[in-house]
Amino acid sequence: MKNNLSNIRDKLNSINNNSYATRFSSPLPEQQELLKALEKRIAESTEFFIGYPLNLNFDYTPLIPFFQYLINNLGDPWESGYWYIQDKNIEQQCISWLAELYHLEAEWGYVTSCGTEGNIYGMFLGRELLPDAILYSSKDTHYSIAKAACMLKIPHVVINSQPNGEIDYEHLKQEISKRTNHSVILNLNLGTTMRGAVDRIEPTVDILEKLKIPFYIHCDGALGGMLLPFIETAPKISFQDYPIGSIAVSGHKFFGSPIPYGIVLTRKIYTDKIKHQIEYIGCNDTTITGSRSGLACLFLWYAIMTRSQQFAGEVSTCLENARYLYKRLEEIGYKPFLNDFSTTVVFNKPSIKICQKWQLATQGSLAHIVVMQHLSQIKIDLFIDDLLA
User: Fold this and answer.
1) How far apart are CA 242 and CA 295, in angstroms?
2) Spatial separation of the C-alpha atoms in residues 366 and 104, rounded to whole Å
3) Would you say 217 and 243 are in contact if contact means Cβ atoms under 8 Å apart?
């Protein structure tokens, strides 16, 4: 009997140990050199990165222990399902914090791969709620909206922009009036890509309600979604005051992160139209991507928990430094432009050498700098010195 038990134990141990033992060898010398060269290039490029809306001032070293785990928030963020290597409770706390910021009751949302996914999700919800709808967006709208229209086969009408980049409300009214037999999906920019212009929610809602057309409003708040709530005189982003359908925000912009991610929020009732129960994961499928980064949720949660009391100060400093940059550019004849409630300073495009060194975003004869938390007045002075050299 003892021999039989011993044999059984041996067989079980043999089975349990019959997994492939991955050998984690050190990189070869040439691979090590490649990694060193890559790190050197990224470090040097980071030092002169001022042309795009990314906050490079972050520190997530306390989260390093989690880097050894796969954290996958599979399926609906508000349902645990059968999958336990997830941190959906962390994700829920983040969504609740943002929902309070935007006055959204009965909130629903999730952490996305980037702002583009959030925009596509907003268009997807709008199409499912209003299948006959036409999408309207301004000429200054981010390219992801046109991409979403193409992917989702939504008819798309492009509206003129005002000189500052804000949507032309009169042209919007004219174009919608031509198609009153169709519902409306409207994308509003809470800070356009090149000029940082804010499309106002109130006048667009007024237009739509007067025309008595069913509508769905999505707000692209990639950067501005985290600036406007902390500027006292800025237009409000309020699901309570306005019939907003959804909002998308980028996580690697204002919050800062070593990986790209985003957040999308909407009214929970809208997700009923798209949810499907998936038996083998034990919860509903309500997102675009099935698997989602739990590590991104941790980055967002950590930023909120450790810095949210400083967010207003961070926004104030960025606005102050944007005005400082504007003044310095004006002094040397680069004809800058700065929208209200924005940290995006537009100016005459300098030489290719300057654009490449400082990684400036350019469009036609213009360039811009997006003043983020890592861009100090000292670094602005270094940039101006390069312009004058």
Assistant:
1) 33
2) 38
3) yes
Q: Looking at residue 7, what is its pLDDT?
A: 60
Over the range 195-232, which residues count as b (16 or more CB within 10 Å of their CB) and which as e?
A: bbbbbebeebbebbeeeebebbbbbbbbbbbbbbbbbe
Helices (H), 212-340: 268-271, 294-307, 311-331
Residues forming beta bridges with residue 329, ordered by sequence position: none
| Residue 149: both structure tokens together | 């229209």
What is this structure's pTM? Answer: 0.93
Q: What is the pLDDT of residues 84-138, one digit of tens each?
A: 999 999 999 999 999 999 999 978 999 999 999 999 999 999 999 999 999 999 9
Residue 280 burial (CB < 10 Å; 0-12/13-18/19+)?
exposed
Give catalytic residue positions.
342
Beta strands 262-267; 107-112: pairing state: antiparallel
Average pLDDT, the chain: 94
Distance of CA 117 to the CA centre of its chain: 8
| The residue to which tokens 């998308």 are assigned | 248
Interatomic CA distance for residues 302 and 181, integer angstroms: 47
